[in-house]
Amino acid sequence: MPGIGVTVKDVKADHFIKAYSAYLKRTGKLEVPKWVDIVKTGTFKELAPYDPDWFYVRAASVARHIYLRKGVGTGGLQKKYGGSKNRGVRPHHSAVASGSILRKVLQALEKIKVLEKNNKDGRRISHDGRKDLDRIALQVYRAQHPQPDDE
Hints:
By secondary structure, the chain is mostly helical. It contains 5 helices and 4 strands, in the order αααββαββα.
Protein backbone atom coordinates (compact mmCIF):
# COMPACT_ATOMS: atom_id res chain seq x y z
CA MET A 1 0.00 0.00 0.00
CA PRO A 2 1.61 3.26 -1.08
CA GLY A 3 -0.33 5.22 1.55
CA ILE A 4 -2.56 7.13 -0.82
CA GLY A 5 -5.76 8.22 0.85
CA VAL A 6 -4.61 8.20 4.47
CA THR A 7 -6.18 11.10 6.32
CA VAL A 8 -6.38 12.30 9.91
CA LYS A 9 -9.49 10.17 10.38
CA ASP A 10 -7.50 6.98 9.73
CA VAL A 11 -5.07 7.29 12.66
CA LYS A 12 -5.58 7.31 16.41
CA ALA A 13 -6.11 10.75 17.89
CA ASP A 14 -3.44 10.57 20.58
CA HIS A 15 -0.75 9.37 18.17
CA PHE A 16 -1.62 12.08 15.65
CA ILE A 17 -1.73 14.87 18.23
CA LYS A 18 1.63 13.82 19.65
CA ALA A 19 3.23 13.73 16.18
CA TYR A 20 1.71 17.01 15.00
CA SER A 21 2.62 18.86 18.19
CA ALA A 22 6.21 17.61 17.82
CA TYR A 23 6.15 18.85 14.20
CA LEU A 24 4.86 22.28 15.27
CA LYS A 25 7.58 22.57 17.91
CA ARG A 26 10.31 21.33 15.57
CA THR A 27 9.46 23.76 12.76
CA GLY A 28 9.29 26.74 15.11
CA LYS A 29 6.69 28.56 12.99
CA LEU A 30 3.96 28.57 15.63
CA GLU A 31 4.06 31.78 17.63
CA VAL A 32 3.82 30.93 21.33
CA PRO A 33 2.75 33.74 23.69
CA LYS A 34 5.07 34.75 26.53
CA TRP A 35 2.53 33.96 29.24
CA VAL A 36 2.08 30.22 28.52
CA ASP A 37 4.12 29.12 31.54
CA ILE A 38 1.97 30.93 34.11
CA VAL A 39 -1.59 30.71 32.79
CA LYS A 40 -4.35 28.24 33.69
CA THR A 41 -6.36 26.70 30.87
CA GLY A 42 -9.69 27.45 32.54
CA THR A 43 -11.26 29.01 35.60
CA PHE A 44 -12.16 25.54 36.89
CA LYS A 45 -8.49 24.53 37.07
CA GLU A 46 -6.34 25.02 40.14
CA LEU A 47 -2.90 24.86 38.49
CA ALA A 48 -1.24 25.58 35.18
CA PRO A 49 -0.42 22.58 32.93
CA TYR A 50 2.64 20.57 33.94
CA ASP A 51 3.78 19.95 30.37
CA PRO A 52 5.95 22.86 29.18
CA ASP A 53 4.86 22.15 25.58
CA TRP A 54 1.14 22.20 26.32
CA PHE A 55 0.49 25.05 23.87
CA TYR A 56 1.76 22.94 20.95
CA VAL A 57 -0.38 20.00 22.10
CA ARG A 58 -3.46 22.21 22.37
CA ALA A 59 -2.79 23.69 18.92
CA ALA A 60 -2.46 20.20 17.41
CA SER A 61 -5.65 19.09 19.14
CA VAL A 62 -7.55 22.16 17.92
CA ALA A 63 -6.28 21.65 14.36
CA ARG A 64 -7.44 18.01 14.44
CA HIS A 65 -10.83 18.98 15.86
CA ILE A 66 -11.40 21.61 13.17
CA TYR A 67 -10.24 19.12 10.50
CA LEU A 68 -12.95 16.73 11.62
CA ARG A 69 -15.62 19.38 12.20
CA LYS A 70 -15.28 22.61 10.25
CA GLY A 71 -17.04 25.76 11.31
CA VAL A 72 -16.05 25.53 14.96
CA GLY A 73 -15.47 28.80 16.76
CA THR A 74 -14.10 29.81 20.10
CA GLY A 75 -17.35 29.05 21.93
CA GLY A 76 -17.54 25.48 20.67
CA LEU A 77 -13.91 24.89 21.56
CA GLN A 78 -14.51 26.32 25.04
CA LYS A 79 -17.16 23.65 25.59
CA LYS A 80 -14.94 20.88 24.20
CA TYR A 81 -11.95 21.73 26.40
CA GLY A 82 -14.06 22.59 29.43
CA GLY A 83 -14.49 20.44 32.48
CA SER A 84 -16.25 20.26 35.80
CA LYS A 85 -15.83 22.88 38.47
CA ASN A 86 -15.08 21.53 41.94
CA ARG A 87 -17.44 23.30 44.30
CA GLY A 88 -16.45 21.53 47.50
CA VAL A 89 -19.24 19.40 48.98
CA ARG A 90 -21.78 20.79 46.52
CA PRO A 91 -22.44 19.04 43.19
CA HIS A 92 -20.09 19.69 40.29
CA HIS A 93 -21.11 22.07 37.51
CA SER A 94 -19.71 22.17 34.02
CA ALA A 95 -17.35 25.01 33.21
CA VAL A 96 -15.89 26.22 29.92
CA ALA A 97 -12.20 26.56 29.09
CA SER A 98 -10.41 29.86 28.69
CA GLY A 99 -11.55 31.66 25.56
CA SER A 100 -8.44 33.81 25.40
CA ILE A 101 -6.12 30.82 25.14
CA LEU A 102 -8.22 29.18 22.45
CA ARG A 103 -8.44 32.44 20.53
CA LYS A 104 -4.64 32.78 20.62
CA VAL A 105 -4.28 29.17 19.42
CA LEU A 106 -6.65 29.86 16.52
CA GLN A 107 -4.82 33.07 15.62
CA ALA A 108 -1.44 31.32 15.75
CA LEU A 109 -2.70 28.53 13.48
CA GLU A 110 -4.14 31.13 11.09
CA LYS A 111 -0.81 32.92 10.98
CA ILE A 112 1.00 29.79 9.78
CA LYS A 113 -1.79 29.20 7.21
CA VAL A 114 -3.20 26.00 8.74
CA LEU A 115 -6.60 27.56 9.42
CA GLU A 116 -8.65 30.19 7.66
CA LYS A 117 -11.83 32.02 8.61
CA ASN A 118 -15.04 30.49 7.36
CA ASN A 119 -17.42 32.87 5.58
CA LYS A 120 -20.39 32.10 7.80
CA ASP A 121 -19.05 30.86 11.10
CA GLY A 122 -15.90 29.80 12.89
CA ARG A 123 -12.74 28.53 11.24
CA ARG A 124 -11.88 25.80 8.77
CA ILE A 125 -8.73 24.04 7.60
CA SER A 126 -7.01 25.72 4.67
CA HIS A 127 -5.83 23.74 1.64
CA ASP A 128 -2.19 23.89 2.76
CA GLY A 129 -3.19 22.96 6.30
CA ARG A 130 -5.09 19.91 5.06
CA LYS A 131 -2.02 18.79 3.11
CA ASP A 132 0.21 19.19 6.18
CA LEU A 133 -2.18 17.33 8.47
CA ASP A 134 -2.65 14.49 5.98
CA ARG A 135 1.12 14.22 5.51
CA ILE A 136 1.65 13.90 9.28
CA ALA A 137 -1.22 11.37 9.42
CA LEU A 138 0.48 9.31 6.71
CA GLN A 139 3.73 9.30 8.70
CA VAL A 140 1.87 8.16 11.81
CA TYR A 141 0.03 5.48 9.83
CA ARG A 142 3.27 4.14 8.37
CA ALA A 143 4.86 4.05 11.82
CA GLN A 144 1.93 2.04 13.18
CA HIS A 145 1.62 -0.27 10.15
CA PRO A 146 5.09 -1.18 8.88
CA GLN A 147 5.08 -2.63 5.37
CA PRO A 148 6.90 -5.92 4.66
CA ASP A 149 9.82 -5.63 2.25
CA ASP A 150 8.98 -6.91 -1.23
CA GLU A 151 12.09 -8.45 -2.73
